[in-house]
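Write out this protein's structure.
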Amino acid sequence: MNGRKGAVLMACFAVVVGVAQTGVVGDYIREARHQAAEVRATGVPAVDQAQDPLYKELLEKREQTRIQPVDAVVDRVWKAIPGYNGLEIDVDATYKQAKAAGTSKPFTYVYRQIPPKVSLDDLGAEPIYRGNPNKPMVALMINVAWGNEFIVPMLDILDEEKVKATFFFDGSWLKKNPELAKEIQKRGHELENHAYTHPNMSQLSEYRATMEISKTQKLLKETLGVDNKWFAPPSGDFNQQTVRIAAGLGLKTVLWTLDTVDWRNPSPESVVSKISKKAEAGSLILMHPTSSSSKALRGMIRGIKAKGLIPGTVSQTLSPERIVPQSG
């Protein structure tokens, strides 16, 4: 008998819980929770907030100014092109900030980024030649297998111009020059993979190609504590096997949009002119620690900045992170 009564009581309790989660009662509970959350977030009851002209104005402003995200795509010519976050006003955060300041109008909008539905990771094993053309950044790529005498002068210029670059290390160079590599790391630059013996990757067996990439990947971790993200094929030589192997090791294969061709020892003036003229949003700019690029580096950076572009690393340029306005 007691067991039967207990079962009846449990059934009644289940019915009450079910009613509380559905219908009018459920709606009331959900609304009460929402209002309580709004009060905690803004200090203003939800009903009052919704009726506040400032809040309504912010909602309208958000709809008028929202920038939709751009999906990553595989282009017929440029292959994998990363996506770019959208942007919209964070209404609740902006409203809270305005009310805390004791003003009826916000001095500064708070923004939130909207990620694209398709990211670079969704595109599979594809090479990358450029960033998203909507992002006003370019990447400075410095492939290092020789040219030690020009590295510190280039580092000094990068410091003076307050710019970070991505250095792709040949593994055999890194093995011989760990202290110089650590100096590059100390200056805050991105350190990545340029194979081990600077081979033509397309001519290698799968085993050898894997060893070339993985050996340098391991060395970057052991010597510098770096978790490798990007692989730059030596001489730009690769095939689909190369891209697939790199992807299997967790790396994306990155090439370049603009080449200084500094190994031919062009005049620094011609390098500055070429890069300043051709650089555009999303450009990946290739150079080496050579006399030409060392003498042209400052001019390249200033030419890039003069076009309203931000020079930076490969990760910064290929990230979907949007360049956010500082004020509204």
